[in-house]
Amino acid sequence: MPVAAKLQKYLARKQIRFDIMEHRPTNDTLSTAEASHVSPDCLVKAVVVRSHEGYLLAVLPASQRISLSRLQQALGQPYALATERELDKLFDDCIHGAVPPIGECYGLDVVAEASVFDPADIYFEGGDHKTLVHMSQAQFSQLSDEARRAHFSAAFE
User: Fold this and answer.
1) d(Cα 63, Cα 32) in Å, to the nearest integer?
2) Which secondary structure element, helix H or strand E, spans residue 135, and what is its range?
3) C-beta of residue 144 within 8 angstroms of C-beta of residue 109
4) How many domains does the chain have?
């Protein structure tokens, strides 16, 4: 499964041009960046959080980690990480833990770290742990035009 079915249909409907890049299977985005020879600043990851209002897809560079306290400060309410079980239900066409950073095709609102829009080329997992979707920043921005933008990431310690 190179690209999750919902994501693939969504990209086709939006007429988004993208390439597929295969790499050895990995367990985390920093390993993915290394395996695919892509800068962690260009590799975008998604973290699903929940509040009393529901789920939110937080999108940030692989070079950063999510800070729930900064997210709370930026958006004005407390968030917790979604459980693995919740992820499996929300992303039922994806391999466990391979969450694409495109919320609209999964019915999720998105908040994006502003720096994800800096690189000219964007890469992200398309639904498994051995395939990256590659597109231009302009194409990714088109997909993310409704996303709230905030500063909620922090450096790895």
Assistant:
1) 11
2) strand 131-136
3) no
4) 1
φ/ψ of 42, rounded to 5, equals: -95, -15
Q: What is the pLDDT of residues 4-60, one digit of tens each?
A: 999 999 999 999 999 999 999 998 899 999 999 999 999 999 999 999 999 999 999
- What amino acid is encoded at 135 in this protein? M
Q: Which residues form the domain of 66? A: 5-155
- Give the number of C-alpha atoms closer than 13 A to the C-alpha of residue 143, restricted to the C-beta side: 30
DSSP for 47-73, please give it. Answer: EEEEETTEEEEEEEETTEEE-HHHHHH
d(CA 82, CA 78): 13
> CATH code at 32?
3.90.960.10
Handedness of CA 157, 115, 34, 69 (dihedral sign): positive
Digit-coded pLDDT (tens) for 58-94? 999 999 999 999 999 999 999 999 999 999 999 999 9
Using one digit for the tens of pLDDT, what is the confidence trace for 129-140? 999 999 999 999
Q: Which amino acid is present at 2?
A: P
